[in-house]
Amino acid sequence: MEKLLAQMPHDAIYMNKNLVCGALIYGNSSWTNYWENTLKRDNPNIGRLTTQSMTAMLAYGIKKDLNLIAIVPFIKTDASQGNLLGQKGLQDASLFLKAKSKSFHGITAHGVLGFSIPLTNYVPDFMPMSIGLGSKSFIVRGIISYNLPKNLYVNSSISYQARSMVKADRDAYLSGGKLYNTNQVPVPDAFDAALRFGYLKKDNQLELFAEHFSCTKGDDIRRNDMPFLTNDMTMSTVGIYGKYQPKSLGVNAKVAYVFDGQNVGQSTTYSLGILYQFKL
Amino acid sequence: MKYIITIFIAMVFISCDKSANELGLVPYMPTNLDETGGTWKTFVLADPTDVSLSAPLLISDPLYKKEIDSLKTIVVTDVQKQAVQYWGAGVVLRWNEIARELSAKYNLPPAANSSGVYPVPNAADPLADPKFPFANPPYTARALAYLSVAQYDALVAAWKYKYQYKRAPPNIFDSSIKPLLPISTLPSYPSEYAVVSQASYTVLLAMFPGEGPFLKQKLDEAKNVPIWAKTNVPSDVNAGLSLGAAVAVKVMARAKADGMSAANNQALVPDLINHSKSIGFVNPWISQETPARPPMLPNYGAVKTWNFDRTTLESIRPAKPYLEGSAEFKKDLEELQNIQSNQTRNQAAIANYWADGPGSYTPPGHWHRYACQAGFDAKYSEIRMARMLAYVGTALMDAGIACWETKYYYYSPRPQQFGLKTSVGLPNFPSYTSGHSTFSYAAATVLSSFFPDKTSVFNAYAQEASDSRVFGLIHFRVDCSMGGKHGIQIGDYAVKRAKVDGAN
User: Fold this and answer.
1) What is chain B's mean pLDDT, rounded?
2) Cβ separation of A66 and B3 shorter than 8 Å?
């Protein structure tokens, strides 16, 4: 149910001027349990819901302290049981600009601005099978990173995501017990916050992280109902991320686990990527 | 930094206003007062005089003068003005809209309990889990039909007494009164707002017993609207309330005896399956849910119809569909298999638009919405709006009954029993015939007779709704084509009845 965003707009790493890093990342996120409002349950008519993704990513050093990041994911969903038809397609393209301040006693401030826009006219209101929410979004993020001795670092971030109305296929929907006779559906805005602790030497990195995602408002999935675009989704995630890039070619990997949530699946996600760095 | 600013500015333009705007329905002056409405043939009342209404005070009576004066001193708040504008768009229409909202709210299949059993909603404890009712398509078709019939019969009675007693509206008696709504010369006793609101309240409370406080609040608002709008005096309103209540009692007496209480008789199921096998279905329908859910209302087909009798219902039952193994069956199955592999975005959109599944007002609600819009666009009077909705509503309920009778007569399998998935969600009852097709063609047929210049639009909608079930992969083509034909026949019975009710 969450948008699958790669880590890079979150981190404190920059490409030098005219340096480009391209990545191709395979992701696999799945759940058998989900929170129907606060009730944790499984659903034998869904079984395991798997979202696979293939994400192309490009980070470009405009300057050594200003990077541009572009991300395009292809998503495919499947349910292991029941009869809901899996969906697939290109999801939302996102573009981020990331800039940092000068380091002050090892502390650096970063600002990230981004937006995302659906690349295709995928079905947004067939959740949980839909490949995305269909909204355009605008993201602003602040990051503080702190370099510790021995190549260790801590970084914390907070971001706000403004999300647009979505045009649903249906011409009426129920939200919060009220019927709206329109196809215009407001997807609630969202916050996320993260804390990361890791080791970084040159381009090799190992990181532990915790993230919390929450909508600013929204309704809850009713008993035995399907999720919908207007839901107030919340989730808390922990994970580990690593990158190994001895030369221009490298790999990255991530494992993440949602340990608490509301109106979302309790997903376990892993991803594996190939990175390639080159000078323009 | 300038890049950031550029992106920021671009985003401000991309970000949209997030208030969900609905189509504006505003007060209007009807094109026709329908003065003869009191003579129109009713559905449940044998005659409008089945419900009595005593004569109002004469306008020469000082008490009436006092009522008129009371209107002049009323200070209408902004909230009350909003209520006037809201209900002024049509009291019949607004109660229909409220009923659709409640249908959507209660349209949720119960969850299985920990022992894998699906508890049955209990009318005596409506807010317990699972909530009563499960407002599925047959339930909603029936709720909306009784609502519309009660509104119509109540308005026929109201019109009869309006023109019998001929009390002029307050602003004609005293020209210093400035109504907040368009006002005609329609006699004001009894108040049509009060008649419709009390009748609607009574029916909806019976259909959605957990919604008492919500419905009471709507009733209290609606019945005060003509006072705030200065289009009725309190005695008009009180007379309307008592007349509306009396009509609703009679309409609900029919509802209580129409067979709905036995519609979920699951004891019939083994015999239905045996019958299906005996007429050639090798694999009768079986629930595709885990745990298996009992079929939805297997005896709804025995509920009392409105516009034709039981013999007719059986005589127009669609012929047996193609059996598994036949060339025709294979062709229909292949059509679905091809759609599953190559479903276009447009097919998915049509399937989703008409899906009207859980959390929606169901296909009968969708058609009531279109009907309300058409009546609004045509500037129908309240009584003509109620009449049109009564024919659309009873045709939709008849469609539900006849379609359910057909479904359980054949008990035919769903495409999912042959390996197909769905892009809309799978209803839990036999396949043949398609409810969407039957409902939609029945409604389109009635609507086309009321609004002949929109015939092609309504028929196109019906065909799209019918196709949507093939595009969504949950019906074979024959389910839809035969359901559609059945729906036209069912709608025609309502049209035939409407032609001789004295309104044309």
Assistant:
1) 95
2) yes
Q: What is the pLDDT of residue B12?
A: 46
**Burial B200-212, CB ≥16 within 10 A → b, else e:** bbbbbbbbbbbbe
Q: What's the per-residue H, E or C state across B284-339? A: CCCCCCCCCCCCCCCCHHHCCCCCCCHHHHHHCCCCCCCCCCCHHHHHHHHHHHHH
Yes or no: say if B67 and B233 are a contact pair by the CB < 8 Å rule.
Answer: yes
Calculate how close chain B gets to A99, using CA atoms only, in Å.
8
Q: Which residue has the tokens 């006699």?
A: B187
DSSP string, A26-91: EEEEEESEEEETTEEEE-TTT-SEEEEEEEEEEEEEEETTEEEEEEEEEEEEEESSSSBPP-EEE-
* Cβ contact B392:B148 at 8 Å: yes
**Within 13 Å, how many C-alpha atoms sit on residue A87's CB side?**
24
Mean pLDDT across chain A: 94
Using a CB-CB cut-off of 8 Å, the residues of chain A touching B101 are 174, 178-179
Q: Does A126 touch chain B (CB under 8 A)?
A: yes
The two tokens of residue B35 are 């003065």
Q: Looking at the predicted structure, is the pLDDT value of residue B281 above 70?
A: yes
pLDDT at B38 over 90: yes
Minimal CA separation from A76 to chain B, in Å = 14
Contact A85 B340 (CB under 8 A): yes
CA distance A229 to chain B (A): 13
Interface list for A 53-72 with B (CB within 8 A):
62, 66, 68
pLDDT tens sequence across A128-166: 999 999 999 999 999 999 999 999 999 999 999 999 999
Task: Give residue-wise pLDDT tens across range B301-326.
Answer: 999 999 999 999 999 999 999 999 99
ipTM over 0.85: yes
Which spans in B233-288 are helix H?
Answer: 234-256, 269-278
pLDDT digits (tens, 9 = 90+) for A157-214: 999 999 999 999 999 999 999 999 999 999 999 999 999 999 999 889 999 999 999 9
Residues of B in contact with A44 (CB under 8 A): 290-291
Confidence band of B20 (pLDDT split at 50, 70, 90): very low
Task: Say if residue B11's pLDDT is above 60.
Answer: no
Half-sphere exposure of B208 (CA within 13 A, CB side): 26
Q: Please answer whether residues B180 and B81 qualify as being in contact, where contact means their C-beta atoms are separated by less than 8 angstroms.
A: yes
Under 8 Å between Cβ of B421 and A85 = yes
Give the chain B residue whose CA is nearest to the CA of A178. Answer: B101
Looking at residues A63-79, what average pLDDT do you find? 96
B290, A44 Cβ separation under 8 angstroms: yes
The reply to whether residue A126 touches residue B352, judged by beta carbons under 8 angstroms, is: yes
Confidence of residue A9 (pLDDT cuts 50, 70, 90): confident
Rounded distance between C-alpha atoms, residue A120 and residue A88, angstroms = 11
Q: How far is A173 from chain B (nearest CA, A)?
A: 7
DSSP per residue, B55-80: PPPPTTSHHHHHHHHHHHHPPPPHHH
Query: For B75-113, how does the pLDDT look when each residue is reduced to its tens digit (9 = 90+)?
Result: 999 999 999 999 999 999 999 999 999 999 999 999 999
Name residues 138-157 of chain A within 8 A of B (Cβ): 138
B176: three-class secondary structure by DSSP: coil
First-to-last alpha carbon distance for chain B, in angstroms, is: 72
| Of the partner residues A45, A225, A226, the one whose CB lies closest to the CB of residue B289 | A45
Residue owning tokens 């006072």: B227
Residue B4 banded pLDDT, cuts 50, 70, 90? very low
Residue A162 with chain B: CB contacts under 8 Å: 11, 15
Separation between Cα atoms, residue A125 and residue A76, nearest integer Å: 15
